[in-house]
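Subject: design request, 245 residues
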């Protein structure tokens, strides 16, 4: 009798685990695959259409959080990597010249605080951007829901997190410029092509229509981030190049 109950209990645990996998892990795996497919121009339309059919607002926040966490971790590693390369270069130069070089890391703490404070600020601006895109799209003939739009945008954010891996190569000699070029081209592709394409698919509007909404709000968003970054830098005593994040 006890053996039968134990076997039944184990079966219930297995079924619960299977339901959890189907309800949680499988959607994340699909989202991960969809985000990767967005880098293939010929797969963008089919990927967005497929994702739109299974859009689930419950997973959107987790995907955004995953993208932010990945970007944060990569940023930390890239910063530590840059510091190590700088120290290594200074050691070599000191050994060759026979003199002690002066390196100033006095603002390092403030710089780290500044750099990592941008993560929550950026998330807030993304949420505001998405809300404004939704409102304007609906007012100008769009038919989609905010949940559908936010889900597709979370996939674009996850793709941007994948792209941020190029930061790890920017501090390396010779290939740093290639990494920077790849980052610029990839970001432009995702922001100026994939994002408007996603808005167009959700709301049933043309790409040009979605692009116009996105680019206007993007300019306003960049302007707001510019002023905020300068204000933060002033408070922390950091001199920015170009006044940007």
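Subject: RE: design request

Done. Sequence follows.
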């Amino acid at each position: 009798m006890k053996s039968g109950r134990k076997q039944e209990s184990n079966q219930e645990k297995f079924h619960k685990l299977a339901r959890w996998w189907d309800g949680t892990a499988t959607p994340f795996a699909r989202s991960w695959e969809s985000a990767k497919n967005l880098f293939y121009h010929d797969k963008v339309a089919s990927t967005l259409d497929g994702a739109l059919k299974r859009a689930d607002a419950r997973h959107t926040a987790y995907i955004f959080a995953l993208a932010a966490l990945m970007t944060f971790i990569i940023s930390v590693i890239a910063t530590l990597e840059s510091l190590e390369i700088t120290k290594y270069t200074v050691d070599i130069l000191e050994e060759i010249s026979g003199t002690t070089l002066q390196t100033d890391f006095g603002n390092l703490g403030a710089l780290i605080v500044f750099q990592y404070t941008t993560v929550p600020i950026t998330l807030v601006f993304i949420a505001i951007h998405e809300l404004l895109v939704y409102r304007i799209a609906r007012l100008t003939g769009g038919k989609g829901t905010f949940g559908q739009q936010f889900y597709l945008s979370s996939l674009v954010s996850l793709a941007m997190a994948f792209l941020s891996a190029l930061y790890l190569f920017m501090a390396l000699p010779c290939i740093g410029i290639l990494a920077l070029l790849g980052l610029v081209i990839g970001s432009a592709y995702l922001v100026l092509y994939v994002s408007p394409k996603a808005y167009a698919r959700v709301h049933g509007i043309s790409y040009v229509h979605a692009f116009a909404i996105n680019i206007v709000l993007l300019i306003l968003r960049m302007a707001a981030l510019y002023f905020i970054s300068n204000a933060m830098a002033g408070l922390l005593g950091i001199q920015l190049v170009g006044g940007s994040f």
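Residues 57-97 form the longest helix (41 residues).
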